[in-house]
Amino acid sequence: MTTGGVQIGKLQQACSHCGLNQLCLPMSLNEADIRQLDEIVERRRPLERGAHLYRFGERFSAIYAVRSGSLKTYTSTEEGEEQVTGFHLPGELVGLDAINSWEHPCSARALETTSVCVLPFEQLENLAGHIPGLQRQLLRLMSREIFADQQMLFAMARRSAEERLAMLLLSFSNRFERRGLSPTRFRLSMARSELGNYLGLAPETMSRLFRRFSDQGWLKAEGREISLLDLPALRALAGQSEDEAPCEGPAALR
Amino acid sequence: MTTGGVQIGKLQQACSHCGLNQLCLPMSLNEADIRQLDEIVERRRPLERGAHLYRFGERFSAIYAVRSGSLKTYTSTEEGEEQVTGFHLPGELVGLDAINSWEHPCSARALETTSVCVLPFEQLENLAGHIPGLQRQLLRLMSREIFADQQMLFAMARRSAEERLAMLLLSFSNRFERRGLSPTRFRLSMARSELGNYLGLAPETMSRLFRRFSDQGWLKAEGREISLLDLPALRALAGQSEDEAPCEGPAALR
DNA sequence: CGTCAACTTGACTCAGGTCAACCGGTGTGG
DNA sequence: CCACACCGGTTGACCTGAGTCAAGTTGACG
């Protein structure tokens, strides 16, 4: 047992036993392929709240899958402005934006105690060349990220503050639901101001929005504990028709 | 010779002779690998201005590389609102956002007479499994797209209308320059209102911005013919420091 | 108990949207 | 060949959603 971000060994959970494997990279791989993937996955001891997984400008060496907890990724300018580019929940990959330049173009920081699986990129690339299903899944996940960013772009360009918040809440709702958790009651691990930053809104605006939403009876918010009380109303606001498959479409919003 | 979108044969230019091959997928492949890539590339007769390369909801079968001309991609809601998600110049790939769902989540339409190379996805995937350099380049280009979308997100969330326009103009400038064209004089193939839509701005605002920019002596605009007269001023506005490598960083903005 | 950060609330401001009128080029059909 | 319509663009007047600033309030934690 050593200090630092040192590997703890492949003792416990392998991908094959991980409850998230149907959301994550192993999705639709067979037993043997998953075993090969397991060979290259490193598991470190968890990050503490506020700790960085990587920082802007660091050399890229691996992509990461969130195993438990949550992360935010953000860029910052010289002037110190910060822009949150995403919140990442268990089963989701981070670091895909660094493949191009081999440098992380943003930083990733734990919002709570968080453990990740480390996927050393060169080995992953190599393995993907041998396992078509893995290559495909990697491309799919990157494609999904592109799509999600475009949805978000649309939201930022054309949607009002209310609509954006509704979309974000539904996005969380869907992402919790996919993991088998309640789609209507969940605890957010980030501050209002971080949500606001992500949506391009001032913290004061967030506060007013939450108030308006709970006055309308659409949700109850006790601090970071959220209950969504009227999904149809939120969907209507977010511009999702009632029957729209909530797992595809705008719901894939990050 | 047949009608419709039929293949015209691999007569003329193969990737190996294409002037864009250092921007496009073949980048950093060797002769032999490029030949294999050439095997699967289809080249159709050009799209006319206004014609669709694909439409929202269509089954995904291939990604496309722009060879000449230009495209816009856009999503539209049931209510008929349209949101431009990108402009695509020669050497750039489109359709990457469809890999995830096997359906195009947006439409792509030619802004002028445009020819594209068709890369049937299953064959491309297969080939990428055999040619590590190809797989890597594909991942790189997708990664770059993710990064560019995030830059754009940042711009939409935190930047003023002026700053956004400056960024977009510099993006075009850089993209023309990479192709060996003038970074300061170019013809845009899209309407002001399409630029505005992309940036989340009303056409009236675009008009006022162009006026303000030319009053300041930063550019001259005669219709769609643009001359950038003061790159440093535009860079300052866009938040790029003078010496910042213009080919990486925010310049990769699409 | 004091401190600090997250969150609220209210008052005011302003960037950019909306609406309406108008201009000039271009295509079209009589 | 001309009249008309249409589209993209421009300009002005006005309005409003959300940012900003300032002053609390609440809650967690040492």
From TrEMBL, chains A, B:
PROSITE patterns noted in UniProt: CNMP_BINDING_3, HTH_CRP_1, HTH_CRP_2
Domain Cyclic nucleotide-binding, chain residue ranges per copy: 25-123
Coiled-coil residue windows: none
Gene3D superfamilies: Jelly Rolls (2.60.120.10), Winged helix-like DNA-binding domain superfamily/Winged helix DNA-binding domain (1.10.10.10)
UniProt keywords, alphabetically: DNA-binding, Transcription, Transcription regulation
GO cellular component, one term: cytosol
GO molecular-function terms, A-Z: DNA binding; DNA-binding transcription factor activity
Matching InterPro entries: cNMP-bd_dom, cNMP-bd_dom_sf, Env_Response_Regulators, HTH_CRP, RmlC-like_jellyroll, Tscrpt_reg_HTH_Crp-type_CS, WH-like_DNA-bd_sf, WH_DNA-bd_sf
Domain HTH crp-type: 159-232
Cross-referenced PANTHER family: CRP FAMILY TRANSCRIPTIONAL REGULATORY PROTEIN (PTHR24567), FUMARATE AND NITRATE REDUCTION REGULATORY PROTEIN (PTHR24567:SF75)
Database matches in NCBIfam families: PRK11161.1
This protein's name: Crp/Fnr family transcriptional regulator
Organism per entry: Spiribacter salinus M19-40
